[in-house]
Design brief:
heterodimer; A: about 180 residues; alpha+beta; Immunoglobulin-like; 2 domains; 7-stranded mixed β-sheet; 5-stranded mixed β-sheet; 12 strands; B: about 60 residues; mainly alpha; 2 helices; about 55% helix
Chain lengths: ~180, ~60
């Protein structure tokens, strides 16, 4: 088979291509096209939860917005590691809800309602953290000085875990929190 | 068909250049240039442009 032998002509591009070679090229090309078009297809139809709205912000201004939410909507407190008291807030449906990521805790704890839509704001006060909602497996990087917003709609009531999945130092493994979803009224 | 491409004497020079894509793939310097410039523009420069254009929080 001259597909694997050297060409007999010097002007090798004038030789017609072997059937085996063109079949191989076609199969590889079709597979490449499939992989290529899966990218935009899955982006549109794959129900990916994207944090595609972002703003540049400062820790002071962001903390002020979080404190405002906590003072308006705090319902109780939960005790975290080392007896740290973390406020639990229950913001109204459709509103902006805020989470601070910092070494080494999430603040505050959110209590959301099933079926309602919220704009979840995420920002770090120090360096890179990862927001990972378990077991839903929603994962967003949380940056310092960049506020990312994603739209969430809890679909099932229960208690979810938030863990930090970007290594952020000695107590990274203790940076866990909860997210409560109450049943639809 | 194959024989019409052979020279009539060993001194005859082929004056037909290879196809353009083959000339491109035969030049390692062009390939080096494209291999550095294309990812730099598409990843680094486009990425920096996107980061710089993130708006300030209202």
């Amino acid at each position: 088979m001259s597909a694997i032998q050297p060409p007999s002509n010097r002007l090798w591009w004038k030789e017609p291509i072997e059937r085996v070679e063109i079949t191989w090229v076609l199969i590889a090309f079709v597979w490449c096209m499939f992989l290529f078009f899966m990218m935009p297809y899955w982006h549109v139809f794959g129900k990916q939860n994207l944090a595609n709205e972002a703003y540049r912000n400062t820790p002071e201004k962001y903390t002020a917005k979080v404190q405002e939410m906590i003072s308006k909507y705090k319902v109780r407190e939960e005790t975290g590691l080392n007896d740290v008291k973390i406020p639990v807030v229950k913001p109204p449906a459709g509103s902006d809800v805020y989470l601070i990521a910092r070494l080494w805790q999430w603040e505050p704890i959110l209590e959301l309602e099933e079926g309602q839509t919220y704009r979840l704001h995420l920002m770090s006060l120090d360096w890179l953290h990862g927001f990972s909602l378990q077991p839903e497996n929603i994962n967003i990087e949380v940056h310092p000085n960049y506020e990312h917003i994603l739209t969430v709609q809890p679909s099932k009531p229960g208690t979810y875990s938030i863990i930090c999945n970007e290594y952020c130092g000695l107590n990274h493994h203790t940076m866990v929190s909860k997210l409560f979803v109450t049943a639809k009224k | 068909m194959a024989d019409s491409n052979q020279p009539t004497s060993s001194n005859e020079v082929y004056d037909e250049p290879p196809p353009f894509m083959q000339q491109l793939l035969d030049n390692p310097w062009i390939l080096l240039f494209l291999g550095v410039v294309i990812p730099t523009v598409l990843y680094v420069i486009w990425g920096i442009m996107e980061i710089v254009s993130v708006p300030i929080a209202p």
